[in-house]
Amino acid sequence: MLKSQAAIAGIGATEFSKDSGRSELRLAAEAVFAALDDAGLDPAEVDGMVTFTQDANQEIAVAREIGAGELTFFSRVEYGGGAACGTVAHAAMAVATGMARTVVCYRAFNERSGRRFGQPDARLGGQPTSQGLEMSWHVPFGLMTPAAWVAMFARRYMHAYGVTSEDFGRVAVAMRRHAATNPAAWFHGRPLTLEEHQASRWIVEPLHLFDCCQESDGAVALVVTSAERARDLRRSPALITAAAQGSGEGQMMMTSYYRDDMSGLPEMSVVGRRLWEMSGLGPADVQTAILYDHFTPFVLAQLEELGFCGRGEAAGFVRDGGIELGGRLPVNPNGGQLGEAYIHGMNGIAEAVRQVRGTSANQVPGVRNVLVTAGTGVPTSGLVLSAG
Amino acid sequence: MTGATPGATPGPDPADDELRELAAKQAALGEVRGTPAADPVNAPMIRHWLDAMGDANPAYLDRGVAPPAMAQVWTMQGVRPRGKVSTPVDDVLAALEARGYTGVVATNCEQTYHRYARLGERLTPATRFAGLAGPKRTALGEGYFATWNVTWYADGDEPVAEMMFRVLKFRPRTRTGTAPAGRREPYPLRPAVNGDTAFFWEGVSRGELRVQSCADCGRLRHPPGPLCPHCRSADRSYVTASGEGTVYSYVVHHHPPVPGRRTPFVVAVVELPEGVRIVGNVVDCPPEDVRVGLPVRVTYRAMDDDLVLPQWTPREPR
Amino acid sequence: MRTLTADDVVIGAALPGLTIDLTPTLVVSTALATMDFTPVHHDVEIARAQGSTDIFLNILTTMGLVERYVTDWTGPAALIRRIDVKLGVPAYAGDRLSLSGAVVGREEEGFRAEVRGRVSLGDHATAMVTFTLP
Q1: Predicted-complex ipTM score
Q2: Interatomic CA distance for residues A306 and B19, integer angstroms
Q3: Do B277 and A136 touch (CB under 8 A)?
Q4: Interchain pair A152, B250: CB under 8 A
Q5: B203 plus B114 within the same structural domain
Q6: What are chain A's domains?
Q7: Cys staple from A270: which of A56, A233, A246, B174, with CB 3.0 to 4.6 Å?
């Protein structure tokens, strides 16, 4: 069992900006240095590296840049932001099996000043690979941006449960309220009203501008080592109580429109089930959650898939202040990707570690366990991190 | 277009019998009344029409009558047609469309005026499907000539004007090279196609919506793949869908701009009665009129000289 | 205003030619005046996307221009009984429509004039117009 064998011993990040002015490799190296310093480890101790398939910085390049020596484990996790918690899962498996002792997980990009994921790319459907063929059922019709792919779910979800755009807006408002008191957040000091959300322009109906997370430049790195060793390092460890990856039946990349039901996230249900099984915990045992929030509607669907409320009840859960600081389940105390920064979910894992340590700018009282999820609408992953 | 004249008849095709049967059925419906004109014959629209045509003839407004060539104008649908009453022609054109006769060109318009319509009269159209001739080889491609008649009745039952209208519905030739427009700008959003998916795109270019079916267990599947996930058979076939569906979900794309597209545009997941879903654009319909559950019918649009995409247009519910 | 009577008409007589510049304004204003909002008659981008070189005249306008061509010559006393049009090449904005015609016969229902509307691509419309005169 993977349960509690490994821990996150260090976290590091660059500043979050709209134009870093530096190469992605430099951002990666800076974040890794910060994470190693946080853990009190020397770069020479790093012997494993994990990142996203989408990351432009090869493990060996980052290793050269930080002055690491030999690597005995390196792996990549597929499926966009769905990889985030998966990098920690792979690192934990490597540590638990002895493949490596000190594994760095990182994600670095100039997503705002460089290639922007929200922009259409006519080449998406170009090649007859399995992914190119999958995209070819959608791209020729102009259905080719993440906002559009998610909007298709959002419309069906609204239809199925009578959810409104204002219900989505309340998620954005809560995230911006959290970000407003987080000095590291891009939207620090800049909360959002529901009226502003409603008045914001359409991106892809039914999604307004403020249903879509921001675009950011920046990097985040995490250091994973054994739980035993982590206890002897500089910071209190965040134990990896459970880690899981999941994909659903009939899974596609953000366009799983052909499954029986289109109003949920079955892949997140897989992840949730595995996390609860592995940890022996349940929804009532986590004091705060980091839910991947690149688009507001999927925050609602995740609350349902992970068992924090019943089907179709998430809008009510949010309307009652359930996801706010002080609510039943404070979600993304850092402001999430809507409020803090979009670092493909990795900044959320760092926030979960801070919550476990008790050092967050918006600290939730009495945190013992935190649930973290990764990219939604894609094959995804999740973690339960615990104080220990 | 030039050369849209009947020529030699190609070989027999079972689809031709179905078309002839449908044509006979629609013709047997006789004359079907349409929606009365939104406005009675009126001076402002006449004045506007004369002005646009550059017609200085004072006779019409002096005598309180409409130019006879305006007959059809009175009962045109507006910018946003609502509650459209279907005519016996619609099904025939849809059937032709579904069989790949996606091109259309009007060939004849013959109007007879029994008298000039007078100010204040409200005209009501009535449409009768007259016949289908074909398939014929024409300069534009193989096609059918569809003919129908419209009679405009004044208040009461007095026919004021009649029209015979004929169109050629044809299978557009790819790369004719003779089209006056020349080659079109290539559409940038092209599908990747391989041996597992080619049947679908070949069908679309012939005006058929093909859904993969397993030749062994018969299960349908869309999007298609190389194997049957239920019985592992690699023996694949397809069925031709009826072409009807309902909107299961949809989006209206506003931002950012998409290559080859004008915003806003609608993309929908359409549920087919055959039991699968498919993605396409909803066209010929203002975005605000699209909703979950909207009955739609497939139509085919040539995006450039090579690529045809299946699209969806609102239909009357069954 | 000049108007013809039946006695003035000689079978075989040619109608004076009329040339109409198909400006985008003419194409669009006639489409709208005939309540035809099909985009190919007013939206050049859509027209091109569907394989046309430009926006083009709608059929209701072709009917109207043929009618106008004949009554420009006959004057206001004529009654138009019938217009039969065989449609040919499209009449695109930027082109020029040249109308010519001749009286070709007289039958029970009235005089018959043959009208041809030509554009640079060829015959746009070939029409037979039946009319009566006092």
Answers
A1: 0.97
A2: 54
A3: no
A4: yes
A5: no
A6: 6-114+217-387 (3.40.47.10)
A7: A246
